[in-house]
Amino acid sequence: MSISKLNLRGKLVMYADDLSLVYTEKDLELIEKDMNSDLFKIVWYSNKSRLFINAKKTQFIVFKGQKRKSTELRITLGSKSITQVEELKLLGVTFSASFLFETHIDLLSTEANRRISMMARLRKVLPSSVLNRLYKTTIQPLFTYCSTIWSNSADIHLNKLKILQKAAARVISNEYRYSPSEPLFTKLEWTPIKDVWEKRCNIMIHRLALGETPRMLKNFIIRKTSNSVRRCKDIDDYTVYGKPAKNRFYGNSIFSGGLNIYNKLPMSIRELNFTDFCDAI
User: Fold this and answer.
1) Of the candidates 22, 52, 85, which is a domain's last residue?
2) Which of 141, 174, 187, 193 is deepest in the core (most CB within 10 A)?
């Protein structure tokens, strides 16, 4: 018997040995009831399959708007209570209850700064070509991993990473601290990280528009279909729309801020198939 056949009320998301349950409901009491019911089934399944679930490593988080008060839920796994947290790291991305990625970006900045400092010490013994490779293999992945999730955050947070990319270019090129970064990017054949983020967002949204993404993401955007949209003469058939941004954390997501970037592309690009679209941008 597979765990996916337990008729769970939450949405089961599995990746390798990580398992998550996702619930969408305004009534927290109902979520609490559904979570405890599902976890009871999972414990029964794990005992039957002779599997062990570590309750100390099991946590849950309640996503909410910034103005909404925190509510503690009583969730149990067998005979042990599960800890409710305000921040949760999942597959390398730190999520906060308010769905802002300030903590995640701060962690990236700290780690990137540490690696850049290490490169600064190595530039005395290594040529710039080797340092450039070190940047692309050890620092650039920090800036791009899962960036479609968090790269539409507020500029006050993203600017930290932009500054660090410029600092890395100056270290590799052995230039002064305040040297202009654009000539260095051209010399090193780098793309500004902001442009990389926008390209990755555009690719994801184009896949959404073509219906080439998992079903759980398809309801976040729509093409020009409703009568109210058709009456707008200035909107073309390849414009996509998201749900209205009712709060700031949704407004900073790819499904709001990312759509604004995508819709600024020429219609001749947005109407292309996926392969041609990736080449065009």
Assistant:
1) 85
2) 193
